[in-house]
Amino acid sequence: MQEKIKKAKVLLEVLPYIREFYGKTFVIKYGGSAMINPELKEMVAQDLVLLKLVGINVVVVHGGGKHISDVLDKFGFESEFRDGLRVTGDDEIGVVEMVLSGKANKDIVTLINKHGGNAVGISGKDGPFLYASAYRDSKGYDYGHVGTIDSVDTAILQNLEKGSFIPVISPIAGGNDGKTYNVNADIVAGKIAEAIGAEKLIFLTDVQGIFRDFENKKDLISSISKDESIKLMKDGIISGGMLPKVNSIIGSIDAGVKKVHIINGTLEHSLLLEVFTTGGIGTEFHI
Amino acid sequence: MQEKIKKAKVLLEVLPYIREFYGKTFVIKYGGSAMINPELKEMVAQDLVLLKLVGINVVVVHGGGKHISDVLDKFGFESEFRDGLRVTGDDEIGVVEMVLSGKANKDIVTLINKHGGNAVGISGKDGPFLYASAYRDSKGYDYGHVGTIDSVDTAILQNLEKGSFIPVISPIAGGNDGKTYNVNADIVAGKIAEAIGAEKLIFLTDVQGIFRDFENKKDLISSISKDESIKLMKDGIISGGMLPKVNSIIGSIDAGVKKVHIINGTLEHSLLLEVFTTGGIGTEFHI
Amino acid sequence: MQEKIKKAKVLLEVLPYIREFYGKTFVIKYGGSAMINPELKEMVAQDLVLLKLVGINVVVVHGGGKHISDVLDKFGFESEFRDGLRVTGDDEIGVVEMVLSGKANKDIVTLINKHGGNAVGISGKDGPFLYASAYRDSKGYDYGHVGTIDSVDTAILQNLEKGSFIPVISPIAGGNDGKTYNVNADIVAGKIAEAIGAEKLIFLTDVQGIFRDFENKKDLISSISKDESIKLMKDGIISGGMLPKVNSIIGSIDAGVKKVHIINGTLEHSLLLEVFTTGGIGTEFHI
Amino acid sequence: MQEKIKKAKVLLEVLPYIREFYGKTFVIKYGGSAMINPELKEMVAQDLVLLKLVGINVVVVHGGGKHISDVLDKFGFESEFRDGLRVTGDDEIGVVEMVLSGKANKDIVTLINKHGGNAVGISGKDGPFLYASAYRDSKGYDYGHVGTIDSVDTAILQNLEKGSFIPVISPIAGGNDGKTYNVNADIVAGKIAEAIGAEKLIFLTDVQGIFRDFENKKDLISSISKDESIKLMKDGIISGGMLPKVNSIIGSIDAGVKKVHIINGTLEHSLLLEVFTTGGIGTEFHI
Amino acid sequence: MQEKIKKAKVLLEVLPYIREFYGKTFVIKYGGSAMINPELKEMVAQDLVLLKLVGINVVVVHGGGKHISDVLDKFGFESEFRDGLRVTGDDEIGVVEMVLSGKANKDIVTLINKHGGNAVGISGKDGPFLYASAYRDSKGYDYGHVGTIDSVDTAILQNLEKGSFIPVISPIAGGNDGKTYNVNADIVAGKIAEAIGAEKLIFLTDVQGIFRDFENKKDLISSISKDESIKLMKDGIISGGMLPKVNSIIGSIDAGVKKVHIINGTLEHSLLLEVFTTGGIGTEFHI
Amino acid sequence: MQEKIKKAKVLLEVLPYIREFYGKTFVIKYGGSAMINPELKEMVAQDLVLLKLVGINVVVVHGGGKHISDVLDKFGFESEFRDGLRVTGDDEIGVVEMVLSGKANKDIVTLINKHGGNAVGISGKDGPFLYASAYRDSKGYDYGHVGTIDSVDTAILQNLEKGSFIPVISPIAGGNDGKTYNVNADIVAGKIAEAIGAEKLIFLTDVQGIFRDFENKKDLISSISKDESIKLMKDGIISGGMLPKVNSIIGSIDAGVKKVHIINGTLEHSLLLEVFTTGGIGTEFHI
């Protein structure tokens, strides 16, 4: 019985958080190890269903993980990478879309629904709700069907929210040129969070967050303001691969997203831990 | 961190229950020690708020506890009891109503709202939603302003539910004769549960439930069907003071209430334990 | 038959008023003799029901009348008054709340519903909708649990209006400090009228209104603008106990209440007379 | 002041009736002298607006009065009457429709709106909501464009009710044969009352009602059941021109209309007198 | 089969237009030959029904055509015209209203409904929705019951739109002086289009539109901006009877109407041709 | 101009059909050549958008066409066919799902949206809305992941309809066993049509319909009742591969689908031709 009472108390500890986030929307970028490890996958699905049931509108944006490379291999494509982006040819984009929207997407939908959720998997082409155009880097290099988001039409997301469904979004979008574009899932999640004025944008990653002592992975920063993070970038404490990510997070905050979180998706139930415990487990960015 | 993860897992254990009861209505009869002990009072309030936040419509019906006698004393009334019922005179009913609707009721409302709920305290006169007439026992004895429920108009309850408020109900009702009646709170809870077709009717009591071996308080019955309980009454295993209660429970089940629970309100967080754990902690009656 | 026709003509005389106020909200401060005299009580209840039935949303705020002193006496409290305010101790406030919310409030609800209305009695704790803090006079004197309104959350009022209920409000509010406060009913009525942008705020008092010749109670002012009333205060024509009341009325008009009325509640059907006859019976303040 | 208070009391006398009929629908057949005498016309308009404002949905069906003959004369048509019905030729129906829908109808609309109502004048062709075919008497005689109602589509009436408009209906309907039909307004009113399940169907006529002693116009029957009225017809007490009217009334009651009234429209405010006074002024038929 | 396929392709050509105008409102001034010629009348009715079915909210405003003079003749009135306006006396206005609202209006309603539409014929008195006062020309000449529109209350139009009805409007309005006014139908159409912020205001006329070479009816202008049309007036290319019309069109555009069209109603299906074909058939005015 | 007028007339020919089907739902099984030929694909997309815009709710169910075999080949799977069904192994089903939901589905969505529609592509896993179990033939042979539909939850379809989206459905469903099933698209279309009580179920096939003289493809049957088609099967006129199809059609009619059509998808705009022309182009089954 004492065991049971202890459990009840745990439930009640989350009361203030449930109250705070009731009816709010969280956009969750789902990727990395949490999308590969079977146990973690089940846990993420459970976490999402719980968040939805306690009144939080969750919107999931996923990446493609390792599936894309596997299938491109089967088809005999040799991928060229440039600055971490796969240069995507006219023939490859069809395969990339097929894997993202037909495999990665439906796997997540299946798992969420297995745990009692009501997920609906769509890509940016459905609705349509994401409009993209060709990405060019600063040197003007053409990455083929790698896209950048031009605009977001939130009609389908609002429609699914009214029906209490969980949208699971594959980062594929059509362009006005009639072409299909593969867009970086982090960017898609950010643009959606901005378009719907999300309460939280949460990145499920393979890192723990931002450290004051990055080299030694010591002194994790739990919560940081936009201004402080700009200062840390100037001071070189946030640097390297984190720079574009933090810049993009600052952009989302400027565009009206209340809080942006980077959390460690390799931890069990990292989503619940970040949302429902004091201090959370990763780094939270705010105004 | 392991501590935090354990807590997340506790949260997830309740997922199937939250799903099952989402949007359903529980009528909770609140009385006994759980209404006297300050710690228990806080816990009940927390439990009610949590149930509401995870999507369960809770309707609270309370008794008067010891307050009534205290105040009647101050006013110099000497209460006559008969078969456990206070014979209530024309002068006393005003005091009884005042204590129930102005003190007991508002105390509960205050506590629920302290924990972030949105309780609204009403009596059967408000709306009006409970219609009563004078109670007569089998020998025709008149108990003054002790009443029996003639009908329930659920309009105000539906209205408060639409606004996401928690109705807290004082067991006072007006009669067509223009008189005020004090009705047994168990009966009020049962009639309301029947009128709105509640999923659950839960009695927060000072006993643990129904025992197969009543004398030794051994072999608590976790779940029992209506037919079995009739048999236990015939066999004398359910007897004494439990007889009218179980008869009334059977009436509620016949009138469409899905499940009726007797639970031990002196246990911490007994409501959560009964609703969210396997087997629960008290006795559940079903068809 | 001529008698009947004359009556029909009376009905038709009110047509322009019904049309003018259809769908508007009147906040009515109910107190004084009209809350004591049994015949007047019945008449006020009838008037309120009629106003509601012809499409006016009425919100009633009541005082405590003589009940409070009576019950405090029974409990053996000796009340200290200061500047007309009862200094309310920690023990007394419970009794004050009990009488206001459990007796005065329910008496009014009962009477309104007796005449076919659908009243619902609540205090500022229900919802919760009134937030108070301790009142301090200009010299900083502490009146214990006498409160002042900090904010009004109109959600429960809007909810009850949707359900066509008449809210009857007891002037009790909770504070952020967890304490219970007794607030002057005139102030509660004013704050509510301001918060919902009422068409009219009507004070049922024991005086006839504002006189140009106050001493001789001659030359009742039927209608007066805010600016004129400021002038009358400067000129000393409005003076004494009327000063704070008129100042508060001016505050309500500045905060968006269209018209504020002081009427004589000791007159039969004073509410109907003020609302439905040319010139009315009391004093009306406007911009 | 006493005068004013007396008026307030008159208002309150109608409270029980307002409560009883709130949200119900009355179909009012408007014709006879009440449609000719200018003072009566104004009074009927006032009565209708008052009924609407106190929450009764009124639907007005009017006849054509003397206008039709006047205009047909101007056009040089000589009307043939047969059994009280104008045999209406192909050329005459256009004039009849024009007068009914363009003059009689708009006159009533204008008067109602002058008194603050929101009348909308339509004929059975609008919507369309009345479907008619050619009337044949028992001997098969063809009356040209005199029609009989085949069906009623209540969509436009429901739509206008939602918008709080008062429908004023000209008794013209189109047929499936593409022709225009003039239907007896009493029949139109009856069919509409049946189709919408009206609470009351009221005929504003030039007679006082049904008398037990018809010849001497003595012993007006205030209220009579369907069965009694059948008996009175058998006994010859109801006879002559009243027979088809009472038969049609019985038909409406059988089809679900709660009460049917015959009242004397030549009395001032006869509508208010019948609806809002005990006993009323005419004859009421009920089940 | 090829014939059928060709037809399908025609359907598809209108796809972009249907998409563009879905849910938008067109106010159509219906008059001239298209209201006299029986074949054209049928075609206009068909066109209106089709526009409504593909999701365009059509509002029809009609003139009186030759009916008015015919009936005034029958009544023996001799009409005096001044600047093209019929000076309308106290006796004549009743006849004018009767013909417009009872004949012209109902003829159009009948035709639309014959083709499966759901037209409802009203005048500005219904609702009421048009408020007029006496028209005075620049020299102050009084035209009797010729009116000018003071204000438009769109409630009844919105109500009919919600019910998917097609409003057919007779250009008659009441004044605050209690008089009835006959207003030029072009002006009524313009005022309504402005009040509801119509997408298009279309005049079905007997001319083809605006020509650059007006004398020789050559060089029809398909589309012209407000500024260009002001220039053409200055240059004398738009002149004579077209001047007031174009001035009024410019007023409508300034008041928020997106586009105003003058089209040739003597062409078969001119409405569909203008709305659903590239370039249209008349002249379109835009910002 | 004459050309334009002819086109307008074509538009009007479809008026009666648009009226008849307004607000009704058509389930369209899309497969065969119409899903392969690029011109036909564009035309089908245009047809679907037009049907939607004129008020018909279209639901598209597609097959996989030749894509599946192509991709399975790339992956090195050798497909075993049995009775026309691909026996689908544990490894193959993932590929089949990926192609159906990620390629075939999104291709159709892209095309519909290119023509201005608002398609949303989902599979039976989304929602989830289709529940399947393993298919067994009459001899109990196991086809692996070939499934049969157990139930349909129409919530997501209703939700998308409310948002005016066109659902495009990939015939993949999850089972209670946690497995993924590939279900014959004809069966999926039939089950959905039955579950939502569709007005029409239309099969876009490569045949023209049912012939009385099947061998010579002569005497196409335009319309046939359920009873006649049973007779034709008995008489051997409907035989061979058509038998299961017609049996399934009869099942759909018995389950409440109003009409089932087999049409020739290789014809240009076959959908519009069947829906909007007299007689249509294929065979229509009805009760």
Q: Could you describe the 3D structure shown?
A:
The structure is a homohexamer of 287-residue chains. By secondary structure, the first copy, chain A, is of the alpha/beta class. Chain A has one domain (22-286): 3-Layer(aba) Sandwich (Carbamate kinase), CATH 3.40.1160.10. The first copy, chain A, is built from 10 helices and 16 strands. The first copy, chain A, has helices spanning 2-13, 15-21, 38-53, 67-74, 92-114, 155-162, 185-196, 226-234, 242-254, 270-276; strands at 25-30, 57-62, 80-82, 85-87, 119-123, 130-136, 142-152, 166-170, 172-175, 180-182, 200-205, 211-213, 218-220, 223-225, 259-264, 283-286. The first copy, chain A, has an 8-stranded mixed sheet with strand order 5-8-2-1-11-15-16-14, sandwiched between helices. A 4-stranded mixed sheet of chain A has the order 7-6-9-10. In chain A, a hairpin with a 4-residue loop joins strand 9 and strand 10. In chain A, helix 4 packs across helix 5. The longest helix of chain A has 23 residues, at 92-114. The radius of gyration of chain A is 19 Å and the shape is globular. The model of chain A has no long low-confidence stretch (mean pLDDT 92). Chains in contact: A-B, A-F, B-C, C-D, D-E, E-F. The A-B interface holds A 1, 4-5, 7-16, 18-19, 22, 46-47, 49-50, 53-55, 115-116, 267-269, 272-273, 276-277, 281 and B 1, 4-5, 7-16, 18-19, 22, 46-47, 49-50, 53-55, 115-116, 267-269, 272-273, 276-277, 281.
